[in-house]
Amino acid sequence: MTNKPVFHTILAGRQTISVADTDHTSTDDKESVCHDVPGLDYEEVAAALAGATDVVLTADETRHLLKDHPQLIQQLAEWGVDDTELLEQLVNILATDLIGERWPTYGETEIDYPAFISRVHAAAKSKGYEIQAD
């Protein structure tokens, strides 16, 4: 396994995102690249996700979950996790990752919300995540 710093500039749409530090780890020809955007606290993002979904992720798990969403990462760094629109995007990404469905919006009557939550929590447990309510 090698662990070496790599520095990048990421283009997200018309914005250039400065990457403070990139951790590059290679194990058995599998690579993981994590981009840390200045001003983004992944522990705070994980706490916001846990507060909204009861699914507890570590900062690293949250970073991995968001790795394909550079625009959202930049917006979170700028506006924070208290922005309701960004929190909605976060829970949608988590639900899609876990069960392949978006998180229901407030007032959706055709969704069996308790059954949806049960499926999300079961999928989270199967991935090794803790559930806050347990």
Q: Topology, please?
A:
Elements: E1 2-5, E2 9-12, E3 15-18, E4 21-27, E5 30-36, H1 42-53, E6 55-56, H2 59-65, H3 70-79, H4 84-99, H5 113-126, E7 130-131
Antiparallel strand pairs: 1-4, 2-3, 4-5, 6-7
Helix pairs in contact: 1-2, 1-4
Please report the distance between the alpha carbons of the first and last residues: 35 Å
**Radius of gyration over C-alpha positions, nearest whole angstrom:** 16 Å
Report the helical percentage: 40-55%
Give the tally of β-strands. 7
Element order: H for helix, E for strand = EEEEEHEHHHHE
- Percent of residues in beta strands: 15-25%
Structure classification? alpha+beta
Number of domains: 1
Gross morphology is globular
Mean pLDDT: 79
Give start-end ranges of low-pLDDT stretches. 1-34
How many helices does DSSP assign? 5
Order of strands in the sheet with the most strands? 1-4-5
Biggest β-sheet description: 3 strands, antiparallel
Quaternary structure of the protein:
single chain
Would you mind describing this structure in some detail?
This protein is α+β, with helices and mostly antiparallel strands. The protein has one domain (38-131). The chain is built from five helices and seven strands. It has helices spanning 42-53, 59-65, 70-79, 84-99, 113-126; strands spanning 2-5, 9-12, 15-18, 21-27, 30-36, 55-56, 130-131. The chain has a three-stranded antiparallel β-sheet with strand order 1-4-5, with no helix packed on it. Helix 1 (42-53) packs across helix 2 (59-65). The longest helix has 16 residues, at 84-99. Residues 1-34 have low confidence and may be disordered.
